[in-house]
Amino acid sequence: MQPRIWIDLDNAPHAHFFAPFVRELPKHGYMPLITVRSFGQTEGLARSYRMNFTTIGAHAPHHSTVARVREAVGRAAELVRFGIAHRPVAAISHGSRSLTLAAATLGIPAMAIYDYEHVSAGVFHHLCRRILMPEIVANAGQSKKKIRGYPGFKEDVYIHDLRPDGRVLHELSLDPQRLIVTVRPPATWAHYHNEHSVVLFRALIEHLRAQENAQVVVLARTRDQAEKLSGEFNLGERPFILTSRAVDGLSLLHYSDAVFSGGGTMVREAALLGVAAYSTFAGKPGAVDIELERQKRLTILRTQEQVAGIRLRKRPRRIADPRESPTRRFILKEILELARH
Question: Which InterPro entries does the annotation name (predicted)?
């Protein structure tokens, strides 16, 4: 039996990120062993990549540190039992604290990847053998112990493989001749949440409501969030299309004329695809987003006046040729080195 490398997906974007490595590992003599936290669209996206996975634990939107720690430790205990049964040789995640705790308990070498330097990362630095982050973050004052800086952005791992699927337009009843705007609301339960994000989101919704030719897809993070947004912001009527189910988000971004997000991954995906990308995240901006803003590929919205001044327009679409990803190659090498040592 091939040795197993344990990959834990605890948030929806991790399915996109790890899919290329799940495909590659068997070519190098390793079998991916995948666990998933039940949260938002994570399981649905994992299925869309035809991953074989085991769901362990579920997310609840906690607003206290104590509750978040309790959930992480409780899930770690479940992961320990899973790890004992399957005996992986290494454990990899993009910021899964539960996997890090479980791997440390079992004596399995672990690697954590993250790209936002203001996240609470103490558990990774104490317990992981190796930590990966973008070079621009590693060079922004992080301690060099255990840290490897990878080239580019984490989204470079998979974004250049995109072959957009027009079925997403049919699924959401979108007319490609009209303006398409995609909106991701803020994660109000996250420990890095800033209430000004909600102020900006409210201003954005009212601005988009006045766009007569727009089709505005609001991708709620969870079913509960969708229900709350529908009632609080009256998103059940035109121009809004509100959904919390798993959709082909990358294809939707390709067909969008503008993307607004209260979090990092989706707005960076849009920026790298050449879509007009706007961040309504009001927390402390990370080095990655600051760099994209410097490159004029991302606009970080900071005031309601900025939101009101946005002018939306149709954009030409092009499909870039697939290309080799130095980011993917670097991270795969680090994963294999961890497993072999």
Answer: DUF354
pLDDT digits (tens, 9 = 90+) for 65-97: 788 889 999 999 999 999 999 999 999 999 999
Q: Where are the alpha helices (DSSP H) in 107-240?
A: 122-127, 135-138, 167-171, 196-209, 223-233
Task: Report the relative pairing of strands 110-113 and 31-38 from DSSP bridges.
Answer: unpaired
Are 236 and 230 in contact by the 8 Å Cβ rule? The answer is yes
CB of 86 closer than 8 Å to CB of 315: no
Q: How far apart are CA 36 and CA 39, in angstroms?
A: 9
- Beta carbons within 10 angstroms of residue 164's beta carbon: 17
DSSP 3-state percent helix, strand, coil across the chain (nearest 5): 45, 20, 40
Residues near 125 by beta carbon (within 8 Å), at least 6 away in sequence: 131, 143, 145, 146
Q: Which amino acid appears at position 315 of this protein?
A: R
Q: Within a 10 A sphere around the Cβ of 161, how many other Cβ atoms?
A: 14
Retrieve residue 49's tokens: 């990549």
Residue 201 has pLDDT above 70, yes or no: yes
Mean residue pLDDT across the chain? 92
> 189 pLDDT band (50/70/90 cuts)?
low
The full set of domains in the chain, from first to last, is: 4-158+325-340 (3.40.50.2000), 166-308 (3.40.50.2000)
Q: Which residue, chain included where needed, has tokens 């006045």?
A: 210
Q: What is the pLDDT of residues 138-152, one digit of tens each?
A: 886 555 678 999 999
Residue with tokens 């035809």, as numbered in its chain: 50
What residues form DSSP beta bridges with 268? none
Alpha-carbon distance of 256 to 235, in angstroms, equals 19
